[in-house]
C-alpha cells in the first residue's frame, strides 16, 4: 500500500511540475508579444495539459477528480480551453470488483450480507470517486440503495492530500497563482469538505437536516435513511425511481413543464442560501432526480457547504444591487465577501456589471450576433484577469455548486429568467433583514416592487437603460481608446527602437571593417540605447 501512495504522489507532483514548467517557459518566451498566433499556441498547450490531467484523474480517481471539477469552475485563474476540456470530467470512475465491495459490506455489518439484503445488483448502478451504489431489497421486500465506500479510499485520499501539499508549496513559490488564491485556506476547505464525505453517517445526518428544512416545500422529496443498517462506510437509504433532472426526453414524455420545473428547482437552491446554513455542494444532474409526476428528488448529501448569516446578508446586498441597479452596492457586497480587493477600479467594474445586466434583461445575450456577444465576454474576461478579483477559498465549493447548478438550469430552460424568479422572494426576505444599522428601506422596497410587477416594469427600465447607455458606452469607449492608444504607442516605440538597433548594428559592423573609431563608438551607443528601449517596452 505504501508503494501505491508513493506512486500516486509521484504521478501528481510530476504532472504538476511539468505543467508549471511548461507555462513558465511559454510566458517567458512570449512575454510582451501575445499576438493571435501566440495565443493560438497557448490554447493548444493548455488544451494538451487539460487532456493529460483528465486522463490521469480518471485513472487515479480520488482527489484528482474532485480537484478537476473544482478547477473547471475557476474561470478567474484557469484558461478557457482548460475549463472546456475539464467540464466533461465527472465522478464516474471504473468500479471496483463486486467481491471487494461485498467484503467491505460484510466487515461493516459483521454478518453475511444476504442476512439483511436480498437481490443485490451484480454491478453498481452508480460509481463515484468515494463510493459506489448498489440496488437491493430488505427482507420485507422494500427496495433500497446501498452505498458502499470504495476500499482503501481513506489511504488514497491521504496520499493525494500529501501530494497536494507539495503541489501547493510549488505553486506558491514558483507561480503567480499565489497572488490570486489563498492556498492555505483552500487546502483546509478541501480537507474539511471532501474529508467529510468519508463519513457516511454524516451524510445521513445532512440528508435528514435537508428533509426537515424543506418539509413544507411542495413537489420536493428526500430519501428515507435506515439507521440500523448504516455505518461510517455503508449507507442504506430508500430507493427512489426517477430520471436525471437533465433527461429532457423523460421530462417531455411525462408532460412536465420545463420552465415550471426550472423555476421550482431555482427556488429550492435559493432557499438553501437565503438564511444561511447548509447548501448542497454537488448539485449535478445525477444528484437531482425527477419523478414522472414532476416531483424533484435531491440525493447524495456527502458534500455540503455552509454559508453564515453574515455572508448571506452580503450576498443579499449583491442581489439587491443588481435588482435595484445600484452597482456600488454590488461592489460593496463583493468586497465584504472578499471577492473584490480594495484597490480594484470600481468605476470600471460597475460599468461592466451594468452592461451585463442590461444585456441580460433585454435578452441581448441570446439575440445579438455572436460577434457582439464574444466581444462582450472577451471584455469581461479581460476585466476579471486585470482587476484584483478573486474567489475566496472558503467559497470555492459554493462557486462550484452555483456553476454546476446554473448549468443544470440552462439545460432545462436556456431562457429561464433567474432575476424575475428571485425578485419576489428576495424582497420578502430582504424586508426582514438588518445590515448593521441599515435595514432594507421602504423606498428600496417600493422601487424593488415596481420592478417586479410584470411587463410594465420593462418600459421605464428600457427608457432608463436607453438614457444611461450612451454615458456608460462613452466611458467604456474612452477607457478602450486610451488602452488602445497606449498599446499603439508602445508598439510604435518598440518598432522604432528595433529599426534603430538593426541600423546601428549594421553601422557598427561597417565601422569595425573600416576601422572608423568615432563611428564605432556612436553606433555602439545607439545600439545599446535602442536595445534597452526595445527590451523595456517588451516587458511593459
From TrEMBL:
Keywords: Membrane, Transmembrane, Transmembrane helix. Gene3D superfamilies: Transferase(Phosphotransferase) domain 1. The chain crosses the membrane at residues 495-513, 519-535. Residues 89-331 form the ABC1 atypical kinase-like domain. SUPFAM superfamilies: Protein kinase-like (PK-like) (SSF56112). The keyword Transmembrane applies. The keyword Transmembrane helix applies. InterPro entries: ABC1_dom (IPR004147), Kinase-like_dom_sf (IPR011009), UbiB_kinase (IPR050154). Belongs to the protein kinase superfamily. ADCK protein kinase family. PANTHER family: CHAPERONE-ACTIVITY OF BC1 COMPLEX CABC1 -RELATED, PROTEIN ACTIVITY OF BC1 COMPLEX KINASE 7, CHLOROPLASTIC. This is AarF/UbiB family protein. It comes from Paenisporosarcina quisquiliarum.
Amino acid at each position: 500500500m505504501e508503494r501505491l501512495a508513493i506512486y500516486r504522489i509521484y504521478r501528481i507532483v510530476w504532472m504538476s511540475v511539468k505543467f508549471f514548467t511548461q507555462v513558465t517557459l511559454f510566458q517567458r518566451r512570449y512575454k510582451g508579444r501575445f499576438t493571435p498566433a501566440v495565443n493560438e499556441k497557448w490554447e493548444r498547450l493548455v488544451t494538451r495539459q487539460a487532456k493529460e490531467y483528465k486522463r490521469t484523474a480518471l485513472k487515479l480517481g480520488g482527489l484528482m477528480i474532485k480537484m478537476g471539477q473544482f478547477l473547471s469552475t475557476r474561470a478567474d485563474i484557469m484558461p478557457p480551453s482548460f475549463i472546456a476540456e475539464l467540464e466533461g470530467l465527472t465522478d464516474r470512475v471504473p468500479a471496483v470488483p463486486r467481491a471487494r465491495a461485498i467484503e467491505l459490506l460484510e466487515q461493516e455489518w459483521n454478518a453475511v450480507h444476504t442476512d439483511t439484503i436480498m437481490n443485490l445488483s451484480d454491478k453498481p448502478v452508480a460509481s463515484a470517486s468515494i463510493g459506489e451504489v448498489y440496488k437491493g431489497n430488505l427482507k420485507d421486500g422494500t427496495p433500497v440503495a446501498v452505498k458502499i465506500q470504495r476500499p482503501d479510499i481513506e489511504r488514497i485520499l491521504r496520499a493525494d492530500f500529501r501530494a497536494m501539499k507539495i503541489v501547493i508549496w510549488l505553486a506558491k513559490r514558483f507561480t503567480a497563482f499565489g497572488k490570486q488564491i489563498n492556498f492555505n485556506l483552500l487546502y483546509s476547505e478541501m480537507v474539511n469538505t471532501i474529508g467529510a464525505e468519508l463519513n457516511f453517517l454524516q451524510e445521513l445526518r445532512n440528508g435528514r437536516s435537508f428533509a426537515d428544512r424543506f418539509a413544507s416545500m411542495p413537489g420536493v422529496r428526500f430519501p428515507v435513511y435506515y439507521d440500523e443498517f448504516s455505518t461510517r462506510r455503508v449507507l442504506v437509504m430508500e430507493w427512489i425511481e426517477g430520471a436525471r433532472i437533465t433527461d429532457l426526453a423523460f421530462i417531455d414524455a411525462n408532460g412536465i413543464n420545463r420552465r415550471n420545473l426550472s423555476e421550482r428547482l431555482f427556488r429550492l437552491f435559493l432557499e438553501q442560501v437565503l438564511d444561511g446554513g447548509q447548501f448542497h455542494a454537488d448539485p449535478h444532474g445525477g444528484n437531482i432526480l425527477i419523478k414522472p409526476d414532476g416531483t424533484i428528488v435531491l440525493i447524495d448529501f456527502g458534500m455540503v457547504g455552509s454559508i453564515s448569516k453574515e455572508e448571506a446578508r452580503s450576498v443579499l446586498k449583491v442581489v439587491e444591487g443588481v435588482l435595484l441597479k445600484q452597482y456600488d452596492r454590488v461592489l460593496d457586497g463583493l468586497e465584504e465577501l472578499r471577492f473584490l480587493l480594495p484597490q480594484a477600479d470600481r468605476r470600471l467594474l460597475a460599468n461592466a456589471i451594468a452592461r451585463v445586466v442590461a444585456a441580460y434583461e433585454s435578452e441581448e445575450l441570446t439575440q445579438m450576433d455572436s460577434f457582439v456577444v464574444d466581444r462582450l465576454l472577451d471584455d469581461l474576461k479581460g476585466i476579471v484577469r486585470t482587476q484584483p478579483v478573486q474567489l475566496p477559498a472558503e467559497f470555492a465549493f459554493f462557486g462550484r455548486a452555483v456553476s454546476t447548478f446554473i448549468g443544470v438550469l440552462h439545460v432545462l430552460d436556456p431562457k429561464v429568467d433567474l432575476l424575475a424568479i428571485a425578485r419576489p422572494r428576495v424582497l420578502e426576505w430582504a424586508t426582514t433583514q438588518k445590515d448593521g444599522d441599515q435595514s432594507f428601506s421602504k423606498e428600496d422596497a417600493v422601487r424593488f416592487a415596481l420592478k417586479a410587477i410584470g411587463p410594465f416594469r420593462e418600459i421605464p427600465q428600457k427608457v432608463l437603460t436607453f438614457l444611461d447607455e450612451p454615458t456608460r458606452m462613452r466611458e467604456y469607449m474612452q477607457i478602450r481608446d486610451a488602452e488602445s492608444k497606449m498599446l499603439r504607442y508602445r508598439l510604435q516605440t518598440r518598432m522604432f527602437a528595433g529599426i534603430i538597433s538593426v541600423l546601428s548594428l549594421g553601422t557598427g559592423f561597417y565601422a569595425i571593417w573600416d576601422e572608423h573609431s568615432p563611428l564605432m563608438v556612436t553606433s555602439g551607443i545607439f545600439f545599446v540605447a535602442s536595445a534597452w528601449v526595445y527590451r523595456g517596452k517588451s516587458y511593459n
